[in-house]
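Input (BTB/POZ domain-containing protein At3g08570-like):
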Amino acid sequence: MGVASESAFPFASTKLATSPRFCSSISRRIFSDVVGDVTISVDGQSFLLHKFPLVSRSGKIRKMVVESKDTDLSMLELFKVPGGAPAFELAAKFCYGTNFEITTSNVAHLRCIAEYLEMTEDYQEENLIARTETYLNEIVVQSLEKSIEVLCASEGLHPTVDELGILDRCVDAIAINASKEQLVSGLACLECDAGSGKLKMDGQDWWVEDLSVLRLDLYQRVVAAMRRTGVRSDSITTSIVHYAQTSLKGVERYQAWDSSTFVGGKQRVIIETLVGLLATEKITSVPLSFLFGMLRMAIEVDAGRGCRLELERRIGFQLEMASLDDLLIPSLQTNDSVFDVDTVHHILVTFLQRIEDEDSEELLQCGYESEGLKSPSHSSVLKVGRLMDGYLAEIAPDPYLKLQKFMAIIELLPDYARIIDDGLYRAIDIYLKAHPSMTESECKKLCKLIDCQKLSQEASNHAAQNDRLPVGLVVRVLYLEQLHLKSALSGNSVDRSLSQRMIGSSGAPSSAVSPRDNYACLRRENRELKLEISRMRVRLSELEKEQAFMKQGMRDGRSGERSRAFLASLSRGIGRIAMIAPATGKQSQASDGKRRRRHKHSVS
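Output:
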């Protein structure tokens, strides 16, 4: 605490001959050798004093004595005294000339009681009002730390302390001194990189932690003053984050089923106020982890809807930087899912709205529109797509998760948010496994959201053997695999894969795909086709060996079991292909013709 020396602010040039002595909390006497002639009652405490030293400095007491009809006045009662009995005791000491120090802890009390007792220069020079004003102007407002201490010590002095402008002066002093500190520290820590000529700022704001001791309403005023005086936005944000961490320790967890345990009223006010302060800061200046933490606490203490919407909006504007753990927000509603899916849905809506706005702005700047053109935020959409696939996989095992909420998250993301649908397929498969009671129609409705053409070879192989999937989806997967094999054998893999990519499973063109998506898809499919061609070559080599073995056996007049087994397996394979992709009319006629010809040959 900053303390003024007695030599700087003495209240008597010489000490009195007799030291003051206080008898009890009920009856207090200043001098032990002189009987007091007036008793002053302050908040239930009585002070046995003398009229002369009081009326010589206090205009209020002088008026009360003069206006009294009792010529032998011995009792005075003071009401609504700012600072109460302790402040009046200090003022009485000043009237008697007793030396004591003005400090940051008592200057606000002394200034308020001096105003109440009308201790102005009209009654005596260098009265208490003048002394306290000198201390405030020359000591307090010159120091950021002392201004904070005076604000902390002003508790219980309302409304007098506000009417006298003490709080405003301290608030403005904090803002001005913080701005000066930043300027001085910035110049001191300014470094110049001789090679690049870039400027580097290394200064840190030591006062950020000091502000966390302020009462919430005073802190609000300090932040507003700092914005007016030009304190850096990142410093204000850091201060708000530190204030929240300090003041929200031990937030009580809200239990919806037991309202008696809810004691988060104070924390709710703090959260709503701090979120309101953040509303004017830059979106990217607020750490994402802090926003998620505030959102969790806002949900726990049942903060206002506006508060939560602001947090969801800020998170949505930088969702691509979030982690999976950030999104796993516990739900506090009874008979609901384990995680708060609605909140994540709101955040995702905000993110997509931001992407839409950015794309519209980019198109206006370019002066043309192109459906297939990659947007500047496309990489952010891809990141969020992967993030949401992971989130869906995490919430899918929850048996209480409703299908509508699960599907709502999937349907929100556009088609170009996923280059491959492996993550989505995995999440849906987990959901089907965790919800065996789903009806067939619900299962089909959910599985329609999977684009079979975006499944990797590994995912397609898994889907083809997955009993939980609808038969229609399995057939589509097998059919696409057959097309891939035909493309690999025909040598038109690139053209066919591109055309198949642009056509959905229903036969209608899919949504617009960006050139980068097409390029990535082509590269992926080329790798898959090369792998498939290698497998076909191996299989072809095996068939040639089998054919040579079979010919040799026929020459020897002994077609053994190995040949019969091979033919049987070959016929089964042809039968399966026929089931998956039945031939067209001409092809089936040609096959019938060939079979008839082979039959005639054998008969003859």
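The chain is about 60% helix and 5% strand.
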